[in-house]
Amino acid sequence: MKKPASLFRSGFPALVVLPLCAGLALLSACKKPVPTEAPVPGAAKDGTIALSAAQMDRLGIKLAVSQQANAMPIGTVPGVVSLPPDARVAVTTPYAGTVLKVLVIQGQSVKQGEVLAIVRAAESVQFGAALARSQAELPVVAANAARLGQLSREGIIAPARADEARAALAATHATIAENRRLLALGGAGRDGTIILRAPITGRVASVAVDTGGAVGNGVAPFIVENASNLRLDLQVPERLAGQVRPGMGITVIQEGRTAHGMLLSIAQSLDPLTRSLAAKASLPSDSRFVPGKGVMATIAGTDGKGGVSLPASAVTHVGDHDEVFLRSANGFRAVRVSVAGQIGDQVFLTAGVSPGSQIAISGVAELKTLKAGQ
To answer: For the segment 320-343, what is each residue's pLDDT rounded down to a tens digit?
Structure first.
């Protein structure tokens, strides 16, 4: 019996060809590469935490560059804001009198020469009258001295009489000058009115008189303060006695304000009660601190070694030491550091990090977790 030719024209039976093609397709699909997941970050055997830029971004890690710091914090001491000796000026009158009008109130800002009050003093009228009398006598005394001097030179009278006339003339000149100075000292007019003016620009710190009150025999009626240049009275503890010296910088951080000043002087002996050294420091005019306010001041000095400064958020405490995470070519590495102190949001290191290093300042907790998982 002859087999149909159509089944063998292709060389293989149709039922055999189709399954073979499907098998080849399945083999080719198996050879395609299978996508792999990104490596999970972690610490290597040498302690380096390898992280890509994308992983740093997901962990919220930000960097900062360590800065060279020549002045390192020595200690923080208590202080009180004060005024320099020349910042308080009392306004007084040389004559006793009565206040006619008060033109300022306590705490008011005044400019130099501004009128504070008007006073009436009878004593100033007396000095004015004495000045008028001396001025009226002056031409007569001067003419008498000239006439007697001429007679003395001609030998008509004794030289002693000419000397007496010249002495009287000198006394009259002295009386006129004295009365003028007394009237000018009080700023008094011919009617006995005295105008009290602000001697400096500042604020009226004290008003001790009222309209109708007496002045000239007691407390100064006004005190004006110039608070543009403040001082700081510090108490330096005994342990810092040998380290603190004039010229060192000080920093005061209070109520969100930061002020930088300088040590002006320091006592040479300890106070027996507080066991501390009294020191004075300057404060800038824009510090806006109120005299009498208590603050804490950090003293910074140079010991020749220097160090670096970083944001305080970069330092983490681990066990019995402090660490920062240093950025390297392969990732991050925990480095032990020595902290000298902190001023505001800046921490100062004496060892462990060199200037110009890149340090993690955020995401530090995540880096600690990755380090602990090695």
So the answer is: 889 999 988 878 988 898 888 888
